[in-house]
Task: inverse folding
């Protein structure tokens, strides 16, 4: 089934198929463009139309509907504009006869095909080859300002002719009307012809209304585009800002400065590199820092890049940059993963070193040992501002040296002999028994026995040349049966809450004297 | 060089003469003119004829009138004006002279 329409050609009514109509209309448009628009040309075209009608009537015979084949035959018989011109005798004799000379003109028309109101803006746009929106906005602004815009618009509406034929539309755009240009334009306008096809008056009005509505939306769209551009700029600036801040922060904390500012509550001057150096036994912690830096740096750099690209819209080989940076990033992740994996070996074996010895009180007859925390524990040469606490451990930092500090656990147990005894169990991990043992051995815990007072440091520490290997220290003070121990308040922190000889909490144990009686510690 | 092209150029030169010549034998409407010219292979595409007729008419060589046709719209009948007859005579003289010259050249060649 094909759509057909009714037309009048050369005074004869035809029913014609849609595609046949398109071909015929295009043909006649091309003839008009060729011959021009003066009286003589109009007469020629009207004669040609009559002849075309005659030919069609002949071809139809008894049939009803004009087909594309018939139209092609008509066109072949009458000849295309270029065939006509090649056989036309008058070209040189009478230049004004064909409109060719005048066609080089560039003229201002109203453009009904792209009209929003009467096509003045569209016509100006076509003439100057710029977006009609410019003129529309100009008219709107001038109208709102003092009404001048509307006045100019109406004046132009009256003065300017409407570009109706293909030839006029080409003049409007300043295109030279020659055969090749014509054919190009005919093709371009084919679609427009189609849309004009079965337009009756109502449909035409509706169509114009709808297209005006559509254009209004397009104008609204332009406003939205501006808003989108502003939004885009804001996002771009945010990207650049976040990227720059991120890079600054990561450079500062990894290489130059003080992680504490960003990550930890108090201020020490310790860098992440130094912190990592307490655990990783690589020759250089750069093996860790560089991948960490790249892992952080590349996403921030990408943000900056994206932001700059959104602002300046420079064209770069984005895919190359993406692939490169993504590969570097993945390499960094893999490097960090393998370094970490290798490091895990250093934590596989657990060993401990135990020292146990008698505490010989100065007064051998004394029955009570006083257990006191060392108030003057000075973290070595460190002051408290240089301590960074991480979980159960602290890292003291001064003059480029670090020392890891841990809390021992204090137990009170029963002595099998008649005298007070003390044991220190130091534990550590290592890649082998030997390294674990030597690491445990290196842990330092300070204590002194003065008279009947055992002064115990509430911290142990790992010397600078030793790495962190989850070192732990358990201190046990053994109390003989019938003798007593007094525990100072300042030891509450290190007293284990898991006491074999007393089901009591550390806060209960401190500040009291306890007697070992029948395998129990009894409060005196 | 193209023989078809050269022949087209020749036809182009004498088409005017042919039109006037046909009309000198009696009034004729366009389609009759076309049929005669086509039979004699003077015309390749019909479109060529219309601008020529209109120009000759506007130059006062031809006049035309509308006549009702048995079927379809009225037809345009062309007739030669006295000025047209005068013009035709000139063209005929020119043509005869041209044919003589061309023939003389061709027979001398042989």
Result:
């Amino acid at each position: 089934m094909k759509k057909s329409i009714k037309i009048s050609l050369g005074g004869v009514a035809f029913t014609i198929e849609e595609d046949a109509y398109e071909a015929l209309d295009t043909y006649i448009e091309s003839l008009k463009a060729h011959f021009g628009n003066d009286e003589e040309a109009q007469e020629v075209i009207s004669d040609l139309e009559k002849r075309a009608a005659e030919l069609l009537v002949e071809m139809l015979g008894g049939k009803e509907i004009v087909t594309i084949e018939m139209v092609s035959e008509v066109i072949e018989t009458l000849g295309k504009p270029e065939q006509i011109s090649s056989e036309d005798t008058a070209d040189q004799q009478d230049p004004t006869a064909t409109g060719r000379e005048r066609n080089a003109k560039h003229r201002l028309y109203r453009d009904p095909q792209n009209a929003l109101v009467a096509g003045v803006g569209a016509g100006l746009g076509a003439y100057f080859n710029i977006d009609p929106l410019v003129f529309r906005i100009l008219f709107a602004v001038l109208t709102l300002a003092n009404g001048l815009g509307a006045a100019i618009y109406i004046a132009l509406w009256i003065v300017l002719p409407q570009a109706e034929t293909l030839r006029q539309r080409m003049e409007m755009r300043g295109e030279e009307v020659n055969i090749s240009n014509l054919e190009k334009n005919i093709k371009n306008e084919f679609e427009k012809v189609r849309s004009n096809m079965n337009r009756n008056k109502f449909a035409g009005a509706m169509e114009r209304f709808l297209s005006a509505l559509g254009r209004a939306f397009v104008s609204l769209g332009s406003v939205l585009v501006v808003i989108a551009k502003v939004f885009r700029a804001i996002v771009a600036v945010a990207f650049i800002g976040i990227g720059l801040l991120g890079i600054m922060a990561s450079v500062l904390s990894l290489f130059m400065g003080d992680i504490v500012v960003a990550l930890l509550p108090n201020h020490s001057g310790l860098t992440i590199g130094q912190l990592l150096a307490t655990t990783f036994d690589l020759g250089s912690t750069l093996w860790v820092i560089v991948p960490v830096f790249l892992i952080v740096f590349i996403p921030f750099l990408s943000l900056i890049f994206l932001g700059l690209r959104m602002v300046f819209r420079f064209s770069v080989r984005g895919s190359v940059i993406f692939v490169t940076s993504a590969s570097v990033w993945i390499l960094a992740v893999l490097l960090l993963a393998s370094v970490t994996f290798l490091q895990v070996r250093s934590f596989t074996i657990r060993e401990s070193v135990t020292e146990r010895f008698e505490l010989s009180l100065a007064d051998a007859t004394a029955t009570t040992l006083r257990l006191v925390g060392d108030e003057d524990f000075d973290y070595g040469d460190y002051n408290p501002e240089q301590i960074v606490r991480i979980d159960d451990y602290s890292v003291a930092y001064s003059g480029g040296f670090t020392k890891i500090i841990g809390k021992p656990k204090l137990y009170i147990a029963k002595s099998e002999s008649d005298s007070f005894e003390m044991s220190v169990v130091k534990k550590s991990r290592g890649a082998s028994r030997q390294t674990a043992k030597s690491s445990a051995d290196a842990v330092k815990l300070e204590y002194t026995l003065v008279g009947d007072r055992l002064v115990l440091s509430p911290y142990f520490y790992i010397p600078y040349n030793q790495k962190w290997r989850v070192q732990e220290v358990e201190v046990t003070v053994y109390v003989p049966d019938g003798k007593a121990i007094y525990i100072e308040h300042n030891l509450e922190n290190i007293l284990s809450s898991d006491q074999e000889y007393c089901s009591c909490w550390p806060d209960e144990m401190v500040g009291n004297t306890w007697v070992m009686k029948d395998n129990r510690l009894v409060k005196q | 060089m193209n023989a078809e092209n050269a022949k087209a150029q020749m036809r182009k030169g004498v088409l005017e003469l042919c039109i006037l010549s046909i009309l000198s034998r009696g009034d004729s409407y366009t389609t009759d003119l076309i049929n005669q010219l086509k039979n004699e292979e003077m015309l390749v595409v019909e479109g060529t004829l219309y601008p020529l007729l209109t120009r000759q008419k506007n130059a006062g060589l031809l006049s035309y009138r509308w006549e009702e046709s048995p079927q379809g719209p009225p037809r345009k009948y062309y007739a030669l004006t006295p000025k047209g007859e005068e013009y035709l005579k000139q063209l005929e003289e020119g043509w005869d002279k041209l044919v003589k010259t061309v023939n003389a050249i061709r027979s001398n060649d042989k």
